[in-house]
Each structure stands twice: as structure tokens, then as C-alpha cells.
């Protein structure tokens, strides 16, 4: 039994373009071709695609997925056990985040003021207040710092949740670009970087291209930022930095 690229795309919930890309980079080559030269996928190919999508969902870069799946010593059952452990850990983290969001919603509906610790539960382990003194030391005398403090001083829990939702959506957008094999200097990646810059202006402070590139460099130079960003997808911090630099060059050259 074999399947066309369109059928496989429908089964897996991916685009035909994604399957073509996987074939081009040697990650998932179809087991056969029709008389007309069209791709035909076997059941074994579908099993490999399932493994690829599991690892992709867990944030593994495609080149690492290929290395894992092409390891001749690897046991397919070991792959499944590993993925099950990783997925279980992610489910537990998401359940904790869902509980935190429910707590925030309940407090909001009852008019309860949340503590600073509770306010940032929805942001995971990265607490913006943790580095407040460092931020003051590095940027306390800048207009950007003063603008941000003035804007955020009146932010409600809903405002902070909106900002987090916007950030999460932008992160998913960058990850999707990476998964699709789009280079950091592609139009899509540069457009995402520009939206990132505009979000900073809208929610925090005036952010010109020079300042934006400094932020991008900090995402990579400061391991705390890198670790937080790469939690969504390994290599994301570097990808965002490169997209920010490319976008700045596009608008200033």
C-alpha cells in the first residue's frame, strides 16, 4: 500500500510543502515514485513521519531529528519511550500553567489583588522582577527604561496576560518558520522580527532598529535569555537574533 503526498499531508495535518522540504533535506524520502514520477509513501514512511512530528512538537531541530532517527543502533521502542517521557513532562508543565491561569481568572472575577509572585505565575520560571536591580543598573538612566516603567505601572493582570499571549503567538510564529526551513533573513522571518519590534514600542518603549539589534544580541549573549527563549525551540534565540539583524539591515541600508 502506498500513498500520495496529498494523502499523507491530509493524514498528518501538515502541508505538502513541508513534506517536499523533508524530502529535499533527506529527512523523509518517499519509498517510491509513481510512473509519472510523483512521490509515493509507504506505511514505513508514515511511521517515520509520525516520529518526526513527535520530535518536532517537542522542539527538536530537524537536523537533530534526522540524526536520532538515522542512528542504526537506535531502537524504535526506545524512541517511543523517550518521546512519552518528554511529552509527559510537557503535559505536567502545561497543567501547572493552566492551573495558574485559572487561579488568575478566579482572582480577577472576585476582585482579588494578586501578589507579585502570583502575578507572574503564568510566565513560567522566568520572572521579570528577578532582574529588576540589574535592569536599573544597566538601563535606569535611559528614556526606554523610564517609558517602560511609566507604561507598565498601570498595567492590570489582563494587560500582562495580553502581553504574554502576544509573546507566545510570536514565538509560535518564529518556531513555525524554523520548522518550515525558512532562513532567518527570509521575508517571513524579517516580518516577524519587525512585529516583535513594534510590539515593544506598543507595550513598553520606543525601540529603534539600533536598540532592537542590541536586544537581539543580548538574547544570545546572556545565557538566561537564551535558555528562556530556547525552551520553546532549541536554536530559537539565535534565529530571532539573526532575523532581527536582517530586518534592521533591510530598513536602514
TrEMBL record:
**UniProt keywords, alphabetically:** Activator, Coiled coil, DNA-binding, Transcription, Transcription regulation
The scientific name of the source species is Streptomyces ardesiacus
Q: Which InterPro entries match?
A: DNA-bd_dom_put_sf, MerR-type_HTH_dom, MerR_fam, TipA-like_antibiotic-bd, TipAS_dom
Q: What is this protein called?
A: MerR family transcriptional regulator
Q: Coiled-coil region(s) at which residues?
A: 77-104
Q: HTH merR-type domain: which residues? A: 1-71
**UniProt keyword annotation of Nucleus present:** no
